Every structure is written in C-alpha cells, then in structure tokens.
C-alpha cells in the first residue's frame, strides 16, 4: 500500500501473524493508530491523521491522494468515519446510500467523488471528475453508481478529454454563460487545442505546465500557424484562470462581443 497504513486484516492477508505484528510494534516498525489499524514509519501523514480520527481518508482528500486534480481551497483533511466511530468525528464525509465498510485506509476515487459532491462546488467537482476520467482512475459507470440524481446530472457534464483542471474550469464557466464550447478540437495545420469558441482558440496551461525551451518554441509555432490560417488564439495560465478569471473573461468577451469570433463560410 502506497499510503503505509494497514488494517489488521490486510497485514494478515499479507502473511503476518499476531505475534509478528506485536513484534513490529515493539520495534517501532509499526505504530498502532487505533484498534485494528497500523502505520509504517513512512506512512502518509494525512492518511495517518484520518485513521487516528476514527475513519479513513475520503472525499476530497482521497482524490488528492490518488493524484486527481483538485482546485485550491480544499486544505482540510476529509475523513469518512468508520461504522461505530462516526459520532466521534466532528464532520464525517459521506456519499449516498449505505456507506461501504472501511477496509482500506483510503477510499477509492469513485466513492470519493460520491462524497465530494457534498463538499465541493459544482465547477470544482466537475474538474476533479474530468481529471479522474482522463487519468482512468475510475470508470464513468463506477462513478455513476456512487451518485444521487444531482451528482449524475453533474457527471453528464464531465468530459474525460480535458487535459487539465484549468481547461475544465474554463469550459464549465463559458458554457454556464451560454458560450458554445468545442473540447479538444483538431485544427488543420495547428494540431489539437484545448477549447474552441467559434474561431477563437483557447489554450489553458496547468500549474504543472513545463515551459521548456522545446515546448516554448512549439507553442509559439502553433500560435503563428493559427494566426496565418485565420484563427484567433488566447493562452491562459493557471493564475489567469484560478485567481484572475474576471480579467480573463473580459479578454474573451472583447473578442466575442463584437462577434469577431464568429465562423464565416
């Protein structure tokens, strides 16, 4: 387990005996977090905190643990309480229906998304779900099984083709304003771009976007190719989308209000 936290059942399934577990605790190789749960010395501290609190790492925190893109502002550790211990947790995250048993220290991406509907805004949840689908961390059908009617409505608006959280946010926001947005179109002579609104091409760089010299040159070459072929193009950074959206939207509207983005036959 990459998180370094195990239930007694997991340790025994791996071949450990009760005596070996006791010796590992005595030697300091394992730490007893609460009855039935142990952690290695190198265990993920967020997972350790969740199990110590009486549950497992769930919801938004589980998504982050699985490498799903999560928008900033979700720093609190989200815990899904174990049966019989939930009352001891100030705020235990839960999904729809009867919760599954806490047999692993971190909830699956599909179940975590089911819980996160209650803890994230619609746009943040859709961006996280896009990331889950894009990375194939969970299948759409598995996610749907963990959702109620509202969550399934949101799932229908998700798109696993999205290449970054910032792209997901821009798509969500523009469509909410009534823009017709094409996702990941292939543009002749230019290649694939993130989004298209009419003849306006929009590229969204993620926070982890690496501006190597090769990427820098390729981006500028593609921008020139787009301009030569009559396309308009805008490139937005992570900060432009996450922290400066009003100004970024003004830039888009400066093109769309005078209808300069309209496609012509």
Structure report:
This protein has helices spanning 8-13, 18-27, 45-52, 59-65, 109-116, 122-134, 140-144, 149-155, 165-176, 213-228, 238-242, 245-256; strands at 5-7, 30-34, 37-40, 55-57, 79-81, 182-183, 186-187, 191-192, 195-197, 200-204, 232-236. The chain is an alpha+beta fold and 265 residues long. The chain has 2 domains: 5-155, no CATH class; 165-256, Endonuclease, Chain A (3-Layer(aba) Sandwich), CATH 3.40.960.10. The strands form 4 sheets. A 4-stranded mixed beta sheet has the order 6-9-10-11, with helices on both faces. Strands 1-3-2 form a 3-stranded antiparallel beta sheet. Strands 4-5 form a two-stranded antiparallel sheet. Strand 7 (186-187) and strand 8 form a beta hairpin. The radius of gyration is 23 Å and the shape is elongated. The mean pLDDT is 91. GO terms for molecular function: endonuclease activity. InterPro entries: Restrct_endonuc-II-like. Keywords: Endonuclease, Hydrolase, Nuclease. This is Very-short-patch-repair endonuclease.
Q: Which H/E pattern describes the elements?
A: EHHEEHEHEHHHHHEEEEEHEHH
The shape, in one word, is elongated
Output the number of helix runs: 12
Spatial strand order of the main sheet: 6-9-10-11
Low-confidence stretches: none
Q: What is the total tally of β strands?
A: 11
Protein name: Very-short-patch-repair endonuclease
GO molecular function: endonuclease activity
Keywords: Endonuclease, Hydrolase, Nuclease
What characteristics describe this protein?
2 domains, 14% strand, 265 residues, 12 helices, Endonuclease, Chain A, elongated, 41% helix, 4-stranded mixed sheet, 3-stranded antiparallel sheet, alpha+beta
């Amino acid at each position: 387990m990459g998180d370094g936290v195990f239930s007694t059942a997991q340790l025994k399934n791996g071949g450990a005996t009760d005596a070996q577990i006791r010796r590992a605790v005595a030697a300091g190789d394992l730490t007893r977090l609460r009855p039935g749960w142990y952690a290695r010395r190198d265990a993920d501290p967020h997972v350790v905190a969740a199990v110590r609190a009486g549950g497992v790492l769930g919801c938004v925190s589980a998504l982050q643990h699985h490498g799903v893109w999560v928008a900033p502002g979700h720093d609190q550790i989200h815990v899904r309480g174990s049966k019989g211990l939930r009352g001891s947790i100030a705020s235990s995250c839960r999904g729809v229906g009867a919760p599954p048993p806490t047999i692993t220290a971190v909830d699956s991406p599909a179940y975590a998304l089911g819980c996160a509907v209650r803890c994230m805004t619609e746009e943040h949840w859709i961006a996280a779900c896009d990331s889950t689908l894009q990375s194939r961390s969970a299948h759409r059908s598995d996610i749907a099984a963990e959702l109620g009617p509202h969550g399934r409505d949101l799932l229908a608006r998700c798109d696993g083709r999205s290449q970054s959280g910032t792209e997901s946010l821009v798509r969500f926001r523009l469509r909410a304003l009534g823009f017709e947005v094409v996702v990941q179109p292939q543009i002749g002579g230019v290649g694939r771009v993130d989004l298209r609104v009419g003849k306006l091409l929009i590229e969204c760089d993620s926070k982890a976007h690496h501006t190597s010299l090769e990427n820098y040159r390729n981006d500028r070459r593609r921008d020139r190719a787009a301009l030569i072929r009559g396309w308009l193009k805008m490139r937005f950074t992570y900060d432009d989308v996450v922290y400066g959206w009003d100004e970024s939207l003004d830039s888009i509207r400066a093109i769309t209000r005078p209808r300069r983005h309209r496609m012509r036959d």
